[in-house]
Amino acid sequence: MILGIESSCDDSSVALLDIKDLKLLYHKKISQESEHSPFGGVVPELAARLHTKALPALLEEIKPNFKSIKAIAVTNEPGLSVSLIGGVSMAKALSVALNVPLIAVNHLVGHIYSLFLDCEERFPLGVLLVSGGHTMVLDIDAAGKISLLAGTSDDSFGESFDKVAKMMRLGYPGGVAVQNLARQCKNKERFKFTIPLLHDKRLEYSFSGLKNQVRLEIEKIKGQELSNDDMADICYAFENAACAHIMDKLAKIFKERSFKRFGIVGGASANLNLRSRIERLCLESGCELLLAPLEFCSDNAAMIARVGREKYLKGEFVKHNELNINPRVKV
Ligand code: KG4
Ligand code: ZN
User: What confidence tens digit (pLDDT) does each residue in 84-123 have?
Assistant: First the structure.
């Protein structure tokens, strides 16, 4: 089996995947959400400390399986440097102790493989990756080569939900809280936010302007306390504008390329408003839609082990002294 280790941000996760039949033999993640929540975002130094506690605890649970591990796949890019180091250091030490090779995994490629956890990969494929750190549309050709079609010039889709949530003191991460409030909206016409870059031909995302529109509306109400109705109305208008922004650029990309299949991955792909809009677009375009199971949309080690399995079969190993962390690299 392949041991997968993920620690690129605020989740410590370990997985064991059967190389032959892709059966997930073990998967667990220890999330740090409640520890970061009071700060409205991930505090790197705190994340690093929590990883050094959680990762060895997870490893302890799979000790009886050590003899069956054929290789160790670990996220080494991109992510928070102090978080990546935790997983990579543990992987290196374990690979020496067990005398098995190391496999370096790009976290974003991991998210793509969350679509194929229990089946063989299916390329060519278009992908929308939306998470707390990334917003990208990717094209993957039949040989598995990945090209970036659109990225974000500032905040990511998930991050904009987190920042709106922070303005309303809803805790971190804010995606689900904002989505749930949006569903309680009573006055759908009350706020109208401009969709970013609507008449701009560039295939690019930007969420910071939208976030500022929300901030200005909140400031207008302040003085009085924000009521649940105020927050619900703002969240509704914000979520719609954010999703419409994703869809505007995506519709243009769909026109340029006729994808046979399209997948949405990353923690924020759990957003139901976004999911239903993409379902409609795929249906209209005669394109097959692939979705990762909800449990594996957010960061997890199963997707890292899954990429590790492909690299294991191709013999793509990395030496200890050549395994470095790359906090900023993309795909
Ligand atoms: O992939 P992920 O677990 O971590 C990163 O790699 O960033 O994604 C977490 C992000 C957070 O920003 C969170 O607020 C967002 O995904 N998210 C959502 C929803 N569920 C999670 N954003 C919008 N709507 C949701 N339902
Ligand atoms: Zn992620």
Answer: 999 999 999 999 999 999 999 999 999 999 999 999 999 9
Helices 157-167, 175-182: axis angle to 10 degrees equals 70
Amino acid at 245: H
State the distance from the centre of ligand 2 to the C-alpha of 104, rounded, in angstroms. Answer: 16
CA 84, distance to chain mean position in Å, is 15
Calculate how far, in angstroms, residue 162's C-alpha sits from the geometric centre of ligand 1. Answer: 8
Kind plus residue range of the DSSP H or E element containing 16:
strand 11-17
Strands 125-130 and 135-140: antiparallel
According to DSSP H, which parts of 269-328 are helical? 272-285, 301-314
pLDDT in tens, 122-160: 999 999 999 999 999 999 999 999 999 999 999 999 999
Quote the pTM value. 0.94
Give, for ligand 1, the residue of 129, 161, 211 to mutate: max count of ligand atoms closer than 8 Å to Cβ. Answer: 161
Distance CA 2, CA 264 (A): 25
Q: Terminus-to-terminus CA distance in the chain, angstroms?
A: 26
Measure the CA–CA gap between 83 and 325, rounded to whole angstroms. Answer: 10
